[in-house]
Amino acid sequence: MPNAYISGTGFFAPPRVVTNDDLRSIYGIDTNDEWIQQRSGIKERRFAAEGVSCSDLAVPASEQAIQRAGLQKTDIDMIVFCTLSPDQMFPGTGVYLQRKLGLCDAGRFIPCLDVRNQCSGFLYGLSTAVALIQNGSYRHVLLVGAEVHSSALDLTTRGRTVGVLFGDAAGAVVLSATHEDRGVRGTYLGADGRYADTLSMKIWNIGNRPFIPVDADGFGRIEPRSMYPQMDGRAVFKNAVERLLVVLGESLQKHNLAANDVDLFCFHQANLRINEYVRDQMNVPAEKVINNIERYGNTTAATLPSLLFEAEQSGRLRRGMKVVLAAFGAGFTWGCSVIDW
Ligand code: ACO
Fold first, then answer.
1. Is the pTM of this model over 0.90?
2. Tens-digit pLDDT profile for residues 81-102
3. How does DSSP classify residue 114?
């Protein structure tokens, strides 16, 4: 059985920087830099321009990952696309990426799978991609986490508790088969559907007839609450730290590892306070944890691949290192992955 390792990483964030002060001065939100930084660690985020969708951000990130893997686009055997902000409700975003990468023009009608697991989407996708490589189905899988949040946030004072936390970006990795003794050793996933409504966006209700209420002229009408994500922030915080500590502990134990055997931890970038709490509880020194939330905010499925890209670029992540990824998010869903880089 082959191992699956990450052969290339890529990242793309749209150029427009929106600082905490911009949220106040441009959008008129009653907030301030101090509140946002203290509560979340975020200083700025990126917002995509109008007309730019999730698959658009994914194209440069994917091309970079493929190039850094030393491959051609046509070498990719499958796309796994993780997002909670798909280009359309359906079809999935993977097929748009396939088309925009030129794979259809090249006659590469490879399978495309969308994963809808929010902040832990990348780890659910990773687990799937690794299994498909290990069972011999594919040699190179492109795994993407990408989000355009900015168009679906309530960027007014009404929505400030959620709106200030999120940003747009795309990260990508290529998973490749190898017979070397390296790669993704295990990914451990969990979910607790009792909290499905605690962090959610209910833009439509398919149980309604019709699924979106219509006005007298036949136009769909959505109340503002349903248009934007809703979150019980304190419940998210409490469950996030609890679940992350348990899944990290269990995952390390499965591989007979102590926290100080790990060279680099990459935690989902929801909130710096969550990550600092987890790091503190695990007695992990600060230099072993990489964060970038201060520059990008929470980019949901894109956070983990963005960290891997930045860690590789900066030399903090090198061949032979032991890396642990962990994430928690809406659903609630969570996961942890142990990797020999
Ligand atoms: N700017 C200024 N004031 C604000 C803002 C803002 N953006 N948002 C809320 N406030 C005010 C509230 O109105 C409230 O004022 P009041 O006391 O006069 O009523 C006060 O700040 C405290 O509000 P809370 O909602 O209680 O704020 P809290 O301290 O819980 O912090 C936060 C909110 C940052 C969301 C926190 O609950 C948290 O960190 N939760 C974790 C959830 C998270 O990180 N989610 C990210 C997405 S989910 C994921 O990826 C896992």
1. yes
2. 999 999 999 999 999 999 999 9
3. E
Running DSSP on this structure, what letter comes out for residue 193? G
Quote the distance between the C-alpha of residue 104 and its chain's center.
26
Q: Which residues pair with 173 in a beta bridge?
A: 9, 143
* CATH of region 184-196+229-340: 3.40.47.10
pLDDT over 70 for what percent of the chain? 100
CA of 259 to the centre of ligand 1 (A): 30
Return the pLDDT at 70.
Answer: 98
Q: Which of 82, 140, 268, 275 is catalytic?
A: 268
CA 24 to chain CA centroid, nearest Å: 26
Q: Which is the closest atom of ligand 1 to the Cα of 160?
A: 7
Q: What is the DSSP letter of 91?
A: S
Taking the C-alpha atoms of 317, 173, 335 and 327 in order, what is their torsion angle to the nearest 10 degrees?
Answer: 70
Homologous superfamily of domain range 3-180: Thiolase/Chalcone synthase (3.40.47.10)
Amino acid at 213: P
Domains 3-180 and 184-196+229-340 share a fold: yes
Domain boundaries, the chain: 3-180, 184-196+229-340
